[in-house]
Design brief:
Helices cover about 10% and strands about 40% of the residues. It is built from four helices and 13 strands. A hairpin with a 2-residue loop joins β4 and β5. Part of the 50S ribosomal subunit; part of the 5S rRNA/L5/L18/L25 subcomplex. Contacts the 5S rRNA. Binds to the 5S rRNA independently of L5 and L18.
Length: about 210
């Protein structure tokens, strides 16, 4: 994805406030040299941020007529307005090593034995993974095939086929669960017992 940024001359709280009033978003680009203060069109950025790829892929930034590769690093939103307040990007090249979270795309769930035959539902324990790789090898997403899922067996990190050069950061957990089948709940039908009939009067007693 490509976007256009403009160099920001004025800095400070007042300058940033005026930028936002004029429909711009202040930002910064760091890494591989001196940080550069930038500004972007708010509406264009706001709608770009709604796209998954803008968060998890290498972006082409045009600045002063020159293109460079950058990665979105942080976004600050207004607490209750649909407004972007600030954005951070990192310059990357063919040798930049990065650590970043990428989304998981689950496929084959409906065709699995667990769902199709055993009527299980699938719980997605995590929907993104933190990975390390060279920036140019950053995948937009990681695909998780659930077509082989069976009742009683979960899919773990080690079951995922990762792109070349990509490693998962598990923070000490050896093989975390990614998705697991959940068996359907069996409803118990409780039948109320009929009350015992009261003994007939005089039954079992002799005549007077």
């Amino acid at each position: 994805m490509k976007f256009v940024a403009f160099e920001r001359k004025l800095q400070g709280t007042g300058a940033s406030r005026r930028l936002r009033i004029s429909g711009k978003v202040p930002g910064i680009v760091f890494g591989a040299g001196e940080p550069t203060m930038i500004e972007l069109d708010h509406n264009a950025l706001y709608f770009a941020l709604k796209k998954e790829a803008f968060h998890s892929s290498i972006l082409d930034m045009e600045l002063n007529g020159q293109d460079s590769k950058v990665l979105l690093r942080a976004v600050q939103y207004h607490p209750f307005k649909p407004q972007v307040l600030h954005v951070d990007f990192q310059r990357v090249d063919n040798t930049t090593k990065i650590t970043k979270k990428v989304p998981l795309h689950f496929i084959g769930e409906a065709e699995s034995v667990a769902v199709k035959t055993d009527k299980c539902t699938v719980s997605h324990i995590v929907t993104e993974l933190e990975i390390t790789c060279v920036a140019v090898e950053l995948p937009e997403f990681i695909e998780v095939d659930l077509s082989g899922l069976t009742k009683g067996h979960s899919v773990h990190v080690n079951d995922i086929k990762l792109p070349a050069g990509v490693k998962v950061v598990t923070h000490g957990k050896p093989n975390p669960v990614i998705a697991t089948p959940v068996e359907p709940k069996v409803e118990e039908i409780v039948v109320a017992a009929a009350p015992a009939a009261a003994p007939a009067k005089g039954k079992g007693k002799g005549k007077k």
